[in-house]
């Protein structure tokens, strides 16, 4: 990927933006003048080709005020005790743009005889993220209010501008004993199963969520191509088999820290995290540090050899160790399709073995950079000071300083290291009474499910709470540096989903219409009562729920009473549904077509271990698209979320977007 060099002074940013705009406008003008569109060609050597290009310009704005319950108390909100989820929320106010700029996707297909080549590339420039300052900041830009965000250290192809090769593979069509064999080698998408909206067996693949959140995103930009070898063999009589072997492990791409859709402040970020430090103030103060011991008498500090600590600006910057990643080998799959004429039904059978695509948070026995209280550097002096304060009758201060002294050297890591996740699935697709009906059922073993983050950090760092067993280095000083306490348990998931699609002719004044719906249900193994057993899910910002390991209460542990409950954790079962309707008004005026679309998503009950369902999460999306001669188009969309979905960390991110583009 070509990535523009960071320029904190911003000297080159307007030039880059102007160049991108000129390129987009020039290409549109060229298309208008010469009638350019996706086209085919033949070279002198017999190579046949086809190319296409989509270019667009768009912007997205926040449409709702932030919910104080999704902002930590230290940062001016009311949420629990953690500061790990709110940077993106604080950086963009209602009515401000959170993304804007041009993007383009180009495709080229070549074929000669039985051999072929397919290449797709993407390019983008986000003016808002590249050139505009934000109110709060992120770990990457040092939490400097008003400064631009930084994409330094982001995952490849998730920066604020760039160009990247997406699909790139060679293919061949062969005859094997009279049977057709199609083979592809290179970066490509394998999208198995019959999922419409709810991920099923296709969860074996990776997604590009950063691309999904750019204005005007297309599905082909969201499915991430992986380097792999695939083969499809037709056996005749409606039977085929397909297999893949992935040559390199790749993960799902997440939005960078501080951006509007950032899920966790330290995910896709070059730095670490600021957590559990409300007493020291907001993110800026905790990042820069506070001289916690400045008020203590110098003589007292000198008595325990801690005189120099009076001016140390302690902070709660929990360092981030490098991502834990799995091996490249061992990812493969096999599928078969059988079409039964008597039932007019296609049946699919699938098996896939793959490694984790999304991370969990784990703890590492390694010092965070000083003067972090997670560095372990000050443990001896703080412990000695605690004992002195206790002897002087200052019990409260002694307890607080003692807890700080008990913190060992600890960092966090984003852990993708769960390997050999195995999925078995069956699917069916048919037509009943003019309605296309399709669905799948799957069983997946070894899915890593995140242990509750507050429990994980307090357990790993202090040896307290329901995850105290994770703090091996607290109990045993001989534990080697770099040792990892994995923040997940492996669970099994059963899932079933059914979809239906109905196409209509002229209706409601439209030339055609469609309605698509899907319902899904999940069941997870080994999920117990959150009051007495391991708790999974529920983010940092919600703080602690009551647990037997901490006396059955969260008094003193969670400063926001509404979150002091055992809700929002992963449940044994969960379900929800999705609906989409679209009308097409053809040739409304002088070749202009209109397509209004309505989308509704509702997670009815339960919290799933993979984030698919979050109880009460609701999404209403409306879109109006106008196109001229199927070449030029404009699209206006609005998305609204359910503010009462208490444990949906994005429930206040209502937004609207406007995009104009051209297809060549």
Automatic annotation (TrEMBL):
Keywords: Signal. It comes from the Bacteria. Pfam families: DUF1302. Residues 1-31 form the signal peptide. This is DUF1302 domain-containing protein. It comes from Rugamonas fusca.
């Amino acid at each position: 990927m070509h990535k523009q060099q960071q320029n904190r002074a911003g000297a080159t940013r307007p030039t880059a933006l102007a160049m991108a705009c000129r390129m987009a406008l020039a290409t549109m003008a060229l298309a208008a003048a010469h009638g350019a569109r996706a086209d085919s060609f033949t070279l002198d050597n017999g190579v046949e080709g086809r190319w296409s290009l989509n270019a667009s310009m768009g912007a997205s704005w926040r449409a709702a005020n932030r919910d104080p319950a999704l902002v930590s108390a230290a940062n001016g909100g009311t949420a629990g005790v953690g500061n790990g989820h709110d940077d993106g929320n604080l950086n963009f106010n209602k009515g401000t743009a959170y993304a804007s700029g041009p993007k383009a996707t180009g495709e080229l297909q070549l074929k000669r005889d039985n051999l072929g080549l397919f290449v797709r590339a993407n390019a983008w420039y986000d003016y808002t993220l590249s050139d505009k300052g934000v109110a709060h900041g992120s770990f990457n830009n040092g939490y400097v209010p008003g400064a631009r965000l930084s994409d330094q250290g982001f995952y490849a192809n998730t920066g604020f501008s760039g160009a990247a090769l997406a699909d790139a593979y060679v293919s061949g069509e062969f005859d094997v004993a009279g049977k057709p064999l199609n083979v592809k080698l290179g970066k490509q998408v394998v999208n198995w199963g019959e999922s419409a909206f709810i991920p099923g067996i296709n969860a074996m693949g990776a997604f590009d969520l950063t691309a999904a959140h750019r204005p005007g995103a297309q599905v082909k930009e969201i499915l991430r191509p992986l380097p792999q070898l695939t083969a499809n063999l037709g056996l005749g009589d409606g039977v085929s088999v397909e297999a893949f072997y992935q040559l390199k492990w790749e993960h799902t791409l997440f939005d960078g820290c501080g951006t509007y859709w950032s899920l966790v402040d330290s995910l896709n970020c070059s730095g670490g995290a600021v957590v559990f430090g409300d007493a020291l103030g907001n993110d800026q103060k905790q990042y820069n540090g506070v001289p916690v011991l400045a008020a203590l008498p110098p003589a007292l500090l000198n008595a325990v050899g801690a005189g120099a600590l009076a001016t140390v600006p302690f902070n709660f910057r929990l360092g981030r160790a490098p991502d834990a990643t799995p091996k490249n080998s061992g990812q493969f799959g096999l599928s078969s399709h059988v079409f039964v004429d008597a039932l007019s039904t296609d049946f699919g059978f699938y098996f896939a073995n793959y490694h984790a695509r999304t991370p969990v948070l784990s703890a590492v026995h390694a010092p965070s950079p000083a003067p972090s209280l997670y560095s372990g550097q000050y443990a001896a002096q703080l412990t000695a000071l605690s004992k002195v304060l206790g002897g002087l009758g200052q019990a409260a201060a002694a307890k607080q300083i003692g807890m700080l002294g008990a913190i060992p050297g600890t960092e966090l890591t984003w852990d993708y290291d769960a390997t050999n996740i195995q999925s078995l699935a069956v699917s069916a697709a048919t037509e009943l009474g003019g309605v296309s009906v399709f669905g799948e059922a799957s069983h997946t073993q070894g899915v890593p499910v995140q242990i509750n983050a507050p429990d994980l950090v307090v357990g790993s760092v202090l040896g307290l709470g329901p995850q105290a067993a994770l703090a091996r280095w607290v109990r045993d000083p001989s534990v080697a540096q770099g040792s990892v306490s994995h923040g997940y348990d492996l669970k099994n998931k059963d899932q079933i989903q059914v979809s239906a699609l109905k196409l209509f002719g002229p209706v409601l004044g439209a030339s055609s219409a469609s309605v698509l719906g899907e319902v899904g249900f999940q069941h997870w193994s080994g999920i117990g009562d959150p009051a007495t057993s391991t708790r999974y899910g529920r983010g940092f910002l919600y703080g602690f729920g009551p647990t037997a390991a901490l006396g059955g209460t969260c008094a003193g542990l969670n400063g926001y009473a509404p979150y002091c409950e055992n809700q929002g954790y992963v449940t044994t079962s969960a379900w929800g549904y999705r609906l989409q309707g679209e009308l097409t008004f053809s040739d409304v005026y002088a070749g202009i077509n209109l397509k209004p679309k309505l989308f509704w998503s509702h997670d009815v009950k339960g919290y799933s271990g993979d984030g698919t369902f979050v109880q009460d999460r609701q999404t209403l999306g409306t879109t109006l698209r106008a196109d001229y001669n199927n070449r030029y188009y404009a699209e206006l969309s609005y998305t609204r979320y359910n503010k009462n979905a208490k444990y949906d960390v994005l429930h206040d991110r209502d937004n609207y977007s406007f995009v104009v583009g051209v297809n060549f």
